[in-house]
Structure of Porin:
Amino acid sequence: MKKSLIALAVLAAAGAASAQSSVTLFGIVDATYAYGKGEGVGGSKKSQLTNSGYNSSRLGFRGTEDLGGGMSASFWLEAGVNNDNGAGSATNTNNQATGGAVAGIGGGQGLTFNRRSTVSLAGGWGELRLGRDYTPQFFNLTVFDPFGTNGVGTTQTLNSIGSAGAQPTGVVVVPTAVRASNSIGYFLPGNIGGFYGQAQYYMGENNDNSTLTVGTVTRNTKSDGTGGGFRVGYAAGPFNVAFSMSKTNYAFGDVEQNNVGGQWDFGFAKLMGQYSFDSIGTATAGDVDGKGWLIGGLIPVGAGEIRLSYSTYEYDIGTKPEIKKFAIGYVHNLSKRTALYTTYARLDNSGGASQALNGATTAANTKSDGFDIGIRHSF
Amino acid sequence: MKKSLIALAVLAAAGAASAQSSVTLFGIVDATYAYGKGEGVGGSKKSQLTNSGYNSSRLGFRGTEDLGGGMSASFWLEAGVNNDNGAGSATNTNNQATGGAVAGIGGGQGLTFNRRSTVSLAGGWGELRLGRDYTPQFFNLTVFDPFGTNGVGTTQTLNSIGSAGAQPTGVVVVPTAVRASNSIGYFLPGNIGGFYGQAQYYMGENNDNSTLTVGTVTRNTKSDGTGGGFRVGYAAGPFNVAFSMSKTNYAFGDVEQNNVGGQWDFGFAKLMGQYSFDSIGTATAGDVDGKGWLIGGLIPVGAGEIRLSYSTYEYDIGTKPEIKKFAIGYVHNLSKRTALYTTYARLDNSGGASQALNGATTAANTKSDGFDIGIRHSF
Amino acid sequence: MKKSLIALAVLAAAGAASAQSSVTLFGIVDATYAYGKGEGVGGSKKSQLTNSGYNSSRLGFRGTEDLGGGMSASFWLEAGVNNDNGAGSATNTNNQATGGAVAGIGGGQGLTFNRRSTVSLAGGWGELRLGRDYTPQFFNLTVFDPFGTNGVGTTQTLNSIGSAGAQPTGVVVVPTAVRASNSIGYFLPGNIGGFYGQAQYYMGENNDNSTLTVGTVTRNTKSDGTGGGFRVGYAAGPFNVAFSMSKTNYAFGDVEQNNVGGQWDFGFAKLMGQYSFDSIGTATAGDVDGKGWLIGGLIPVGAGEIRLSYSTYEYDIGTKPEIKKFAIGYVHNLSKRTALYTTYARLDNSGGASQALNGATTAANTKSDGFDIGIRHSF
């Protein structure tokens, strides 16, 4: 998110009230060579020129209008961009499996403002924000991850619940692990003695007589995809800590996602940690608990930064599949906008887990490693 | 369409001739909480955080080049934006059912310049415009609707022919009720004593040996989706009236859409009315006539405006399904760019009709009501 | 590519190093009436209002950051736009048939940065470019085609290998004939005595245990879509010549695309020529050789230009299908940004070929003709 901004001059069409108004075109183009390797039967290697190894590639438009009296209105439209092939990124329209990307249109996936599309009213009382946005339960996972949940080093506390392929049988990817559509969010103002916080409610938008049948069981799904969460934190000097809880309703198993994270900036290094404790309802095995943690840090080195983390996630089901990941990386800043980076990660599956890095495949209970090497340019 | 514009300075790459050239980035982000309720067997309720309750959400790019001698060239690329979830809006490539959105890609629908994508040449003789644009037959329906064909209050003269779900069995949604692709349009210049007008021809682009078989009947469809229309009007002082006719060819039933609308601005209120008389060919029941009307008005109140309308539409087929709608709303302008609004509407089905508001469902011959409450921010 | 550019002022967020930085919004909107006619059994005519008859319609964002010391970073995001209907254009994510557009989503195809999406580092040593870009093997076909591979006059040396419908049975469209995704490109610096050149490597990104079965044969496809090419040229005064070779791997038949092209500017006319010799592997008929050539020219006439070409392509398989095309056109510049144009072309199929122009269809071994008449506006 370190980026310089482009501001466009505004014609004073709305008179004096728009004196402080602006519209900004912004973006990131991050390209990375990514290599992944798996082991055992079915294990494979993969080489890619892909994107977002350090920061998520995007193109966005945002602006603010000063309404006077301390009030402002603003908008934010931000699209994910797969700059290795030009495709856009899919959004999820209803916070349910049915609202996501459709298999098979990958080649033609057009741009959507999947990353954020909101309109806000703000004042001394805080900010009211409507639309598609990050969920509160996501922030601790990314803010307190030395790798910012991008690239091969992404914390396992997110990867295990938010990425396809890392779940035990019957456990689904959590649609609202990162973002939610149809949300109404509230953010505390910025000036309350180090405390910060937000709450969000989001709608699944099903009709109230909707039903879903799994096997021989039919249930009403009017609340599927509807949920909410909050996050509260405190930051002062070198210290920053935050806590988040959330719940999303699904007729065949609610999802609860909770976590706490923090960091201490020692100057010569920034130490980070996080702990997640989740519960994911399944149609076949009831509520499955999952928990994970991360410890890591950032070490400034001249114009660059060393990044380190160790993270784990375990599901409390059957053979208790667990994944442990170690990641180390280096970012070299050519300027505030342009950086070169590389990350190496190694992942250890046990309890039947079989996740692999960077698109490789690996046998259950084996290791996978991979690396990224790339360039991030923001504008 | 009340919006302030962002103008970008142009580098004089084309020399003096581009002195008056400009490119404009513009848009609207309109978010609304929408509630709808139906009645009877199969009736349901729905809650949504959706978009475009007051003005259609959009992101656009447009510009004009002064060619000298009173001539100019211009372009306009405008995309619909579902800012509640970040998705784009589908276009229709051939003015036929086959050219529209494909069921099932809603989650991933990318941005298209579905609202308008045109290039124009203009001079003292008027404007020649090529591409995707509004049809002439749409304007009276929206210009003389107090709700501007947006949100729960949208006039029934449009809703009944342009929205899926409001038609009797066998009657299709009219693909060119609002816009047409592949069009060649001509607009009268703006300075001819209060008269205004436009004509448009659009192509379905089928090969001349194309055929379609319905049941046991096979017909040549070379002209399917090809058609045209015109609109002429007169505006002077408080008075504005316009008339439009159109015809679009389909092998299994042409569509004729005709309407007249007008308004009188009394100062303390603006009175509006419109009358539509359409004919929609069907494969099974021949040409089905439809007709409707609206009466409504806008009443300025301080920084706001009260909006009122009563509209109806009836199909002359079988039990003569008819829908009557009453709508009342209020818009409060926080600035020229930002407004809060709410609308309540109640719809009365008879003759077998079963339309419902805001995504709800209702039984035949029952009522449905709903409301919007939202914010519109333009840039 | 004659276009004036819009430059946005940059806030000096990155300090002095960004002094020469800029972001540019650019595009082309080119609309054309296109008519095509075929002959014989199954022959048909087609009328369209389509796009890109002179230059490819697009919307793009690009920018450069001065990194100091002769180095710079830059990005380029450029989307194809079907401005006749507002749709975007599909990309290809993996340089294979599976990565392209999916049949049936034409109506809803969203914008993708299919034309180019790259990030670059450049210095005195040249430019390193990552992402989706033109392939080196494409440039001679377009640079030395008087019609710039746009519209009904497009050289047959590209049409035969890059457009669906022009290939003999069993021969596929070459996915990398124009662009490749996941590419790493290198460009020579601009100041080496008239010589220029580039090399590119692109990845298909299959897992190394991927397989494909055709009939009873199963092969490993780990390298499918992976390949590369280079182009070297020399330009001095009126003279310009370049040579290109490339190879892309596919388990059931590699594709080799090679060509040479040149031009001589006599002042009163620019003479152009090109020669292609390709080899396209097939699953059923082994490697099929194809070869073609073009001769043509551009003749300046006042504010306009006459364009002429004769091109051919022949596949060395079975009855040796061959296509010969003659094209003549005229472009009239209203300004540097806006032009009117028309092109007429006639195509002669033999040896069983049955290609037709502008969307028409024609019987094998018959002729097809067509024309474009349109306007190109750039910004």
Notes: The domain at 27-378 of chain C is CATH 2.40.160.10 (Porin). Confidence is low (pLDDT under 50) at residues 1-20 of chain C. Chain C touches chain B through 52 residues (CB under 8 Å). The two ends of chain C are 10 Å apart (CA to CA).
